[in-house]
Automatic annotation (TrEMBL), chain A:
<dbReference type="InterPro" id="IPR029046">
    <property type="entry name" value="LolA/LolB/LppX"/>
</dbReference>
<dbReference type="InterPro" id="IPR004564">
    <property type="entry name" value="OM_lipoprot_carrier_LolA-like"/>
</dbReference>
<keyword id="KW-0732">Signal</keyword>
<keyword id="KW-0449">Lipoprotein</keyword>
<protein>
    <submittedName>
        <fullName>Outer membrane lipoprotein carrier protein LolA</fullName>
    </submittedName>
</protein>
<dbReference type="Pfam" id="PF03548">
    <property type="entry name" value="LolA"/>
</dbReference>
TrEMBL record, chain B:
<keyword id="KW-0732">Signal</keyword>
<feature type="signal peptide">
    <location>
        <begin position="1"/>
        <end position="19"/>
    </location>
</feature>
<protein>
    <recommendedName>
        <fullName>Outer-membrane lipoprotein LolB</fullName>
    </recommendedName>
</protein>
Length: 212, 221
């Protein structure tokens, strides 16, 4: 290693002590995430979704809110600039869009797209490391807070997904930020805020469009 | 991801004709005594400007409505548009460059590769709405009475006619009716976007579908 590289490493260690060289997720850290996440029964959160389009050098910002109740109820809703969303309740749900009247029911077994999205969202909401380890190569890239880089194996989601970055809360109980990176430099960043853990949620949240 | 395949399939099949529901009325007031050149030069797409538009939209088929969103860059000088279409989760579906005569596909979600009809249909809609036909100063102005909208008949494209109305004057309708094509685009302004004179809502009616676009944000580049 030449002296310039050593100096750079020292500078990084001084100013970014929480950063680590990418390495496999240590088992004790995985246990910490599993243990903390197991305590979570409900989550409610606001989020900001930023889509960066490299071709236009443009960031599209949307705002929304998110609710989760263990084991399999979820509401994902964009509120600005255009409202849209869906609820998942077990093996079925419904989706809606501000520009379209009513809502469209679906069953996960009949809708592979929603099934795929549901798998991902539930895995993040539950911090389900077992599922994530089955579907991605996981590397630890930050420790305070824990930040993981998830790379899909060749031939699966790799076709349109380069990698994911997932950052956990300080308690490691839930996810605070997700970045979805595509091969061409475009990415989507979802930052969760005002997260309430284990606050009581009304059941109507997960029944449909009007449940909020 | 089969949902995307379904979208493409829906677009690919021959659809029963959609009726033409009533659209909101265009603005009634009209400035008097304008020439075709004056009409055309006030049209927001007539210059050499470049725009970046954020849009949301709904594609209405005879039995289903499909929401879409996208970012569109329009280069008026080059008569070219580039569209990145996404679903509401921000997943990029496709990226197309459209000119008056052609389209090139820059990106297609791999799961959509078996159904290239989707970007083709959307590219055709982008061409009709933003690129061609466009009103020209040499178009023929039809006789009109005071207070009536202005109607220009294209000297470039057979069967194309443009209607201008409102105050300030704006392109309100493009209509093409030939043996091969029969479609209409209505441009609406529900707010005073006088700085750019851009429409806020656009409706393309084809015999097989209706595409409604809302211009969420427009800026000059």
């Amino acid at each position: 290693m030449d002296s310039r590289l050593i100096r750079l490493c020292l500078i990084l260690m001084v100013f970014f002590p929480a950063m680590v060289v990418a390495q496999p997720l240590p088992e004790e850290m995985a246990d910490e995430i599993r243990h903390s996440a197991a305590e979570v029964q409900t989550l409610s959160s606001q989020f900001v979704q930023e889509k960066f389009l490299s071709m236009f050098a443009e960031t599209l910002t949307s705002n929304g809110r998110f609710y989760y109740q263990r084991p399999d109820q979820l509401r994902w809703e964009l509120t600005e600039p255009v409202g849209s969303g869906f609820v998942l309740n077990g093996d079925h749900g419904e989706r809606w869009h501000e520009r379209v009247d009513g809502s469209e029911p679906f069953r996960l077994e009949d809708d592979p797209a929603m099934s795929l999205i549901a798998e991902q969202l539930f895995a993040w909401a539950r911090a389900d490391l077992r599922w994530l380890q089955e579907h991605y190569q996981i590397e630890l890239i930050g420790v305070e807070p824990i930040c993981l880089r998830l790379t899909p194996p060749e031939g699966q989601g790799r076709a349109f997904l380069d990698h994911l970055l997932i950052q956990f809360s300080d308690s490691a109980a839930y996810v605070t930020e997700v970045e979805i990176h595509e091969h061409d430099g475009d990415y989507t960043r979802i930052r969760f805020s005002h997260t309430d853990v284990n606050a009581p949620l009304t059941g109507t949240l997960f029944t449909g469009r009007e449940g909020l | 991801m089969k949902r995307y395949a379904l979208i493409a399939l829906l677009l690919a099949v021959v659809l029963t004709a959609c009726g033409r529901p009533t659209l909101p009325p265009h603005s009634g007031a009209v400035s008097e005594g304008l020439s075709p050149l004056q009409l055309v030069t006030q049209h927001w797409l007539s210059g050499t400007q470049r725009y970046l538009c954020r849009q949301s939209g709904v594609l209405k088929l005879s039995w289903r409505e499909i929401p879409l969103q996208g970012v569109l860059r329009i280069d008026c000088a080059a008569h070219e548009a580039r569209l990145v279409a996404m679903d509401s989760m921000g997943v990029k579906l496709f990226d197309v460059t459209v000119t008056g005569e052609d389209m090139s596909l820059n990106y297609l979600l791999p799961l959509l590769e078996e159904h290239p009809q989707l970007p083709k249909v959307v590219a055709q809609s982008v061409r009709r709405i933003f690129l061609t036909p466009q009103p020209q100063a040499g178009d023929r102005l039809l006789p009109r009475c005071d207070g009536q909208p202005y109607r220009l008949v294209s000297n470039v494209q057979s069967g194309a006619e443009f209607t201008f109305g409102g105050d300030p004057i704006r392109l309100q309708t493009t209509r093409v009716a030939t043996d091969d094509e029969n479609w209409q685009v209505d441009y609406f302004n529900d707010s005073d976007s006088a700085m750019l004179r851009t429409p806020t809502m656009i409706v393309l009616d084809d015999k097989n579908y209706r595409l409604t676009l809302w211009m969420e944000a427009v800026r000059k580049l």
